[in-house]
Write a structure and sequence with these properties.
9 strands; elongated; mainly beta
């Protein structure tokens, strides 16, 4: 079940015409996600994460635990990727309830992803869960670069 877009981050940080990679990040609070859903989070829930602007390549992405898991679950695993594409492209099966603050999740050998003519999101899917997740936080991050046409860079006098 997909949750509302109120947990997503706004796209920001697009660089100047020289086009350099930049980072997008947002902290996801699972207590807020559960409250927004109105019922307990469950396996197969998809939580919208980072908004990626149109015509942007995602070079790398991952998660960092900023507040430990809260709840009764002993098997809360996350995937992190593009819904409708490769939902575990950036993180596959991260054990959130077993992680500590400061732990990172990134999949080795990530494939860069090109976001086309319309913006998209990198989402967290709760891959597995036994019991409940009532809290905890992760910082989602992505290193991206605008690949839109720069236009004519010649002097226009």
């Amino acid at each position: 079940m997909a949750l509302g877009d109120n947990t997503t981050s706004p796209a920001r940080g697009v660089g100047a015409r020289g086009r350099h990679p930049y980072m997008i990040q947002h902290e996801l609070n699972f207590a807020t996600a559960a409250s927004d859903k109105g019922t307990a989070l469950a396996a197969n829930d998809v939580i919208p994460g980072l908004t990626i602007p149109a015509n942007t390549v995602i070079l790398n992405a991952g998660l960092e635990v900023t507040e430990a898991h809260a709840g009764t679950s002993t098997d809360t695993d996350f995937d992190f990727g593009i819904t409708g594409g490769d939902l575990d492209n950036f993180v596959d099966g991260f054990d959130f309830d077993g992680a500590s603050v400061g732990d990172y999740a990134m999949k080795a050998g990530q494939t860069p992803v090109l976001v086309g003519a319309t913006s998209d999101t990198i989402d967290i899917e709760i891959q597995a869960m036994t019991g409940t997740t009532t809290g905890g936080k992760v910082r989602m991050f992505a290193v991206v670069m605008n690949v839109d046409d720069q236009g004519d860079l010649a002097a226009n006098e």
